[in-house]
Structures are given as C-alpha cells and as structure tokens.
Amino acid sequence: MSAAERLAQLALGYRLAADAAPRFGRLLELLESDPRAPSSVTASAAAVDRHVADSLSALEIAPLRAARQIADIGSGAGFPGLVLAIALPQARITLLESVGRRCEFLERARVATGTTNAAVVCARAEAWPAGLAQHDIATARALGPLALLCEYAAPLLVIGGRLIAWKGKVSRVEQAAGDRAAGELGLEAAGVIRSRPYPGSEEHHLHIYAKTAATPIRFPRRPGAARKRPLGARR
Q: Are 120 and 145 spatial neighbours (Cβ–Cβ below 8 Å)?
C-alpha cells in the first residue's frame, strides 16, 4: 500500500473531512524533502504510520474529539499537534515548541498544509502565561516521564480538561511517580488506553489525566525546574 493509499484509509477510518488525506500528504512531503525537518523518521513510507497513524490514535478518546482548545506540548515536527489540527477543524490548536529551528519548521508545515486553526508558539510550557488555564486538552508525545508531563500540562488546562500522553512501555516506578505528581497538581489518573495504530507497533499506550481541581499557584515553576527537581519522586 502506498503512503497516499494509507492516508486515505486512515482518513476514512476516522471519518475525517475529504481534504484531510491530501493535507497529511503535504505534511509528509515536507518532512521528507526538508533537510531541517526535526525528526529521525522522514521517509513517507515509514512516517505515514510512525507519525500520522500514531497521532490519530488519540481520536479514540471522546474528550479530544469534542475539544475546542488544545495545546500540543513539545510539538517538534508537528506530531501529534498539526495532524490533530487537520483532523479537528473545529478546534484551535497551539503548537508549543521551545526550539527555534523546530518552530520554523512547524510554521512552514502549517502554511504548506493550509492549517489555519493552528498557531505556532515558540516558548517553553513553563514560560507561557497566555496559555494558563485555557485548554480543554494538552497533548504530549515522546516528550518525557509522566510526572514531567503532568507538571507541564496541569497549569495549561481548565478544570475538567485532560492531558493525553503518548508513551511506550511505562515502568511501575514511572507510573507511581506520575500519579503522585498528578495529585500535587490538581490532576487524577483517568485511564490508560492500549492501542495498536499500525502493524508492528509495540507497547503503544495513551495515558490520560483529568484536571479535577485548581493547580496550586506555585506552578508553573521556573523553566527547567520540572526536570531538575521532578515531582512525584520518593523521598
């Protein structure tokens, strides 16, 4: 099956708009042709599953389908954020990225795909005051341990919002630390979905946290503190 055929299959399976598959195709063309693309997987034959199908897997989660404001933390090459912006035209999606060259690629990709409901914000999650308590959903893919993701996401979410984190296999230690951190941040673990977005996908999980209470005013901490002094660690 060609990349174009696979994209059409994905768009049909998720009941996306008629223009979704060709727009995904333009994103993959840019990823493959741009030497500055911030990804180790750039060939369309592989990227169609590793990036697009993987990103779309979260559409199984009903609150994401219904979201109006989404923050994609550490958006990188636009996965999942730009893919979700194409899939969810009713949502406003912020592609939040702190590395300048990645922000430049994201803007080129946003323009190339004609994605007007996405905006690139070149900033760290901890240093984006305009985003605080504004989002129904925060997404993060292959970005770090669960405790770190909870700390990045919680201040950005409205009460009732969700963090959706793309993860591979998670150890019991990481899971426990993430759950403890969530408790400090006004979040609660709300389930783990095991999915197989493409053949050969191993240990693919979507970890969901719901924001059930206000995040304490001491968050967000200053940039870098979440990695240097992670929440949820046993003392």
A: no
